[in-house]
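Fig. S4 source data, part A: sequence.
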Amino acid sequence: MAALLKKRAVAEFSQVIQEEPRPIKKLKLVQKPLLPEVHLDLTVGTSTQEAVSSLIHLERQLSQIGENAVNIVRQLVDHYHREKESVVRWKIAHILGLLSKHPQCAADTIVEEIISLLKTEKSHKVVGQLIQSLQTVGLSAPDNRDLHLKIVQLAREHSKHTQHVVRSSCLNLIGAVGSQDTISKDTDQSEEHISVQTLLISFTQDQDPRVRSSAFRAVQQLHQRGQSIDLSVYDRTCKALTDDYEDVRTAAVKLMWILCHLYPESTVPVPESDDEIRLVDDGFAKICNMMNDISMKVRVEAATLLGSLHQVSPKFLEQTLDKKLMSNMRQKKSAHERAKDHYASGEWSSGQKWADDAPKDEVAPESVTLMNMGACGAFVHGTEDEFLEVRNAALDSLCELAAQSQEFAILSQDSIIDMFNDEIESVRLNAINSLRKLSNHVTLREDQLEIILGVLQDFSTTTREALRDMLCDVRVSTKESLNACIVGLLDNLRRYPQDKRSVWKCMKFLGKQHPHLTLPLVPTLLCLHPYFDTPEPDMDDPAYISVLLMVFNAAFSCPTMMTMFEDYTWQHYTYLRESLPDLVPVLKNQNEDKDDNLPGSSSSVSSFIQQITQQVENICSMENNTAQQMLQVIVKDLHKISELDSRNSASAECIGNFLQSQLLLTQLMTKQTVSSSCIMDNHTLATVEKILELTKICQHIFVGLGIAEIGLIRQTELKAITIQILTLMKAEMTNEKQQDMKQNYTKLIKNLKSYLSSSQCHPDAFTTYIFSVVDDLDLNGLPEFITSLQHATTMIKPSAFPIVNKIRKITAVINDPTGPTDKPLKFTAGLTLAVPVDVMLENVPCTSNIRIKKKFADQTVQLFTPKSSDFHKLGPLRHRLVTQVLMSHSLWTEPTNVELCVSMETASNQKFKDTSQDNVKQTIDLSKPVQVYVSPKQVKR
């Protein structure tokens, strides 16, 4: 026996296995083309225009000059000395500044070249450009303090130039790179030793307005770069507010705003008085006074800056809503102050009346300017301005200041509500949104509601929608006011039936916000009588549903009104609770099992889903028959959960779709049709198509999937495509189609491999094997390719789906049109019909791929792409689509329905049935189809 075993072992080890040599892999070296070297030759040009064109061409190629940058700088400088035309020298100076950003060019070298050019330049425009180039060089070297000191000193020397262009360029350079380091340590404040800020302030009195505005902007640049600004700038800024030029006044207003933030508690003297006030109050009053400026640009700037001055005293804020000035051109004083002034005057009186002939505190008429009103009526003038830009800016600032103070919000609500009647729609929308932001501070009065509710008759859908959203948040004071809101909304519903969903939502929040005001209105709203039975209202009436929604939401916080409900009211409640669950609350007095804490609640369902995911963790190690039986039960349970529990329906449906794809794969492998040599039937292809459809839905419809979950879905997709390609290759196909199919398949594998490696996901056994032989698949012939895939399919096993994140499903609900009607929409055949569509989109991260699918009676399908302006963002993942779908068709013999459906357009995976259809656009339906009854008519001649 031992000899026999020895003989067998020797026989086994003595066998010679001869392996066929594998083909040598061919490496394809790709050499990137070298960028062409940039050369400059300005001597070729015979005219100024050709020289400028050459310089413009050089400017466009600055990123490609490479190591030739130093030579180009030298050529530009040499040609600069020979050039006689100032426009060419100006362009060369501009390019020298841009070259300072190149790593091959030293900033110090370019500065020296520019300084040498400044010494011989006569044209003031070229000098100004050279100084601007110095500014560009300084900004390109932010850490070179010595360089900054050098160019700032040069700018100081040229700041005495006679031309405003040069002076403005010098001031811009000082503001851009100047700092405290450039202040001389010498205490002598001569012209050679003067601080940067003092130098800039001295130019605020320049004779040229462009230089004055540049000086103020340079001071602002110092502040933006973190440099401190002295309080001494305030006096010059106040004087500049009355400058004759609007650019100077605009710059002064901005600097005034900066000083109010830097020194809010500093005190400044009041003109012609011994009193002092806070700087922020004085600056606020002066900026308010600029609301009367003759320039619209200055008024917009002043109105915009007022809103961020939150430290202003309340008395100054209140003056902005009052137009009253000082009476009789006198300064108002108390009795003690008047007695003290009379005593200090030392004048004699007749004795008949105390201080009857004493000189009064007259104000010189020339010292009073009627337009200089300070903060008085600033926002009143702003909201009544003739330009919509000023009105919008004033509304924004008024709303921002009112949000900081409840008292000011109450005072400002009249001014905001007056803007509801503005002639410009954007201003009306701004006023509505501003009042909505102040809903926590204000309560609407009856006289204000008359203006507010009038907007519900506006033709603009956006304006009506914004007003209803505002009514959802505000509070009213009396039941008469609430009744007026109800009447206005019902009238809105009668005029514009397409606003039905929005009106219902507004009625819900009105009842929720005012339960105790709704209670006395219930008998009138529900037509109740203490002695007589009233007829049951029609549930198809949208107005009656609106009233019920308001009453039910009010009854949630005021159970007293539930005792007033009739029996049919409770029946209507049950119907609305099932049909409109997001608008109807759960009334606790109802004998319904609606408690969330019961065993069938959402928390228990979540735990049940987690148990299911734990059960399938080891499904890959089970036999196919056992795994198939388990998956059938689990998929059935998950689909049932997705129908019953709305909170966990997305998670249950996503897991159910994935496990159903695993079930279909397991069924294919159980039949052993993949590895067998028999011809595949159409049932296998249909099953594969179903798997691909499920994986596509899991990838695109559900939001919140992690990288691991997406990796599992794509691996399942690869398994299905492998089975599909094997099935198709066993059919009678041409060699060319098989080669294209093979190429597309290897491309798909490489894309999946790069995705899994970048996301650090672990592939399963099937995917690991495919990745290991992907290079061989690309090089081998078709028989070896099919053999490798057949061997890979034997490794296909079902996978588990561990979900960690909260999953949401992309959904769409078509609110308008509501469905088929008896009256068709008629249009001329061959022309277009605009069908209004109102859609609510949930959990949509991007709206660019949302489409409206139109399916006609002849089974033709068209996609309509809405405009980006048709989408209104209501939340991070919530949008509303209001658009008009264009529809056209040839002549029909009789009217019929056209189905409209909201779909998501996605780039499909590569199709292996027909390789010419790669990257075909496909859609996934997001909503239920709605039928529109249309009738194309013949053209009348």
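Fig. S4 source data, part B ends here. Residues 735-759 form the longest helix (25 residues).
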